[in-house]
Amino acid sequence: MAPKRPQGAGAFPKAVESPAPLVQDEPPLYAALDLGTNSCRMLIAQPKGSQFHVVDSFSKSVQLGQGLESSGKLSRASMTRTINALRICRQKLQRHNVQHMRLVATEACRRAKNGQQFINQARRETGLNLEIISPEEEARLAVISCAPLVSTKTRQLLVVDIGGGSTELVWIDLTQVPRRERPGAIMRLHRGFVQDPGPFAAARVVDWISVPLGVATLRDQFQDVDDDAARFALMSWYFEEHLSKFSPYAKEQAKEGFQIIGTSGTVTTVAASHLGLRRYDRTKVDGLRMTSDQIDKVIRDYLNLGPNGRKNDPRIGRDRQALIMSGSAILQALMRIWPTNRLSVADRGLREGLLYAQMSADGVLEDAPY
């Protein structure tokens, strides 16, 4: 007699479910858009430790300020180009469902008679709310973007942001800040150039200036000069004349403990040329320290190439070649006024400053050394 099959035999065993791990929320996404005289650039990023991780980006030469020097107004063609670029930015913001953003316009919209009118038009046609920020805020945002590059040995710091329509210089005294806290003291400037330090030692802003000359506006001033070398020399000395009201201009500075950080397409292009990069690599450029002699050699090479040679030089690129000599003239003037052994190259600027400021204000960045 065959044994009886036990009741329930052959049934699938009931799975014992382990409790599912809690799914942690993804860090929020932040966006920063910088609409300058020459370019429209945007970053979308999420906080990661004391830094951020870039999720998406956009950059396009729109030449918004083209013809501004002669007419005092933004042209219809430049506004159309810019709005087309802004539409692409809006698509990226919608695709990533970005809720935290700051979208700003700088010198071209500040100076143009129809600057606010253009901002209103951009809002109607793209749905993006851009704001025209002051020169002081532009300078402050450029400074805090460079906080991770500030050396703990730095006592006096000069941050230079060479833009398309203006150049911002900020001189900061860090002598009263403990060495380890110096990069963090720069980051805290997102609250303002003058602030109550609270429990922390504060970086002291000695002086700052926004010179209404950038790579595009300085080039336009001397377009009627045919000789390439003469035009370069005139641009450099003309820019220096605009620094007379900057208080550190007339004072001799000690080299020891002095750091100059340059942030702009000019500075990164000079660095890429020095490294001989045929394809730009941010990881090799951002944070690079160049000597004065190395910078001078690159600029001499640019002059020796001449206009046609610069157009065909892959290290410069076609988008940058029309502006590289005016930017180099500004850079040479700065290195002439404040002789220093080294310049720190920053592939960062207003967009990064906007991201740091938003994330710091929301408390989503870790308070860690850089």
Question: Might you state the CATH topology name of the largest domain?
Answer: Nucleotidyltransferase, domain 5
CA(first)-CA(last) distance: 81 Å
Regions with pLDDT < 50 over 5+ consecutive residues?
A: 12-18
CATH homologous superfamily assignment of the largest domain: Exopolyphosphatase. Domain 2
How would you describe what is shown here?
The chain is of the alpha/beta class and 370 residues long. The chain has 14 helices and eleven strands. It has two domains: 104 residues, ATPase, nucleotide binding domain (Nucleotidyltransferase, domain 5); 216 residues, Exopolyphosphatase. Domain 2 (Nucleotidyltransferase, domain 5, 2-Layer Sandwich). The strands form two sheets. Strands 8-7-6-9-11-10 form a six-stranded mixed sheet, with helices on both faces. The protein has a five-stranded mixed sheet with strand order 3-2-1-4-5. α8 crosses α13 and α9 crosses α13. The termini are far apart. The relative contact order is 0.15.
Quick synopsis:
With about 375 residues, the protein is of the alpha/beta class. The protein has helices at about 70, 75-95, 105-110, 115-125, 135-145, 180-185, 215-220, 230-240, 265-275, 280-285, 290-310, 320, 325-335, 350-360, and strands at about 30-35, 40-50, 50-60, 100-105, 130, 155-160, 165-175, 205-210, 260-265, 290, 340-345. A hairpin with a 2-residue loop joins strand 2 (about 40-50) and strand 3 (about 50-60).
What does the secondary structure layout of this molecule look like, with pairings?
Elements: E1 30-35, E2 39-48, E3 51-61, H1 68-71, H2 76-95, E4 100-105, H3 107-111, H4 115-126, E5 131-132, H5 135-145, E6 156-162, E7 167-173, H6 182-187, E8 204-211, H7 215-221, H8 228-241, E9 258-263, H9 265-275, H10 282-285, E10 289-291, H11 292-311, H12 318-321, H13 324-337, E11 342-346, H14 350-362
Parallel strand pairs: 1-4, 4-5, 6-9, 9-11
Antiparallel strand pairs: 1-2, 2-3, 6-7, 7-8, 10-11
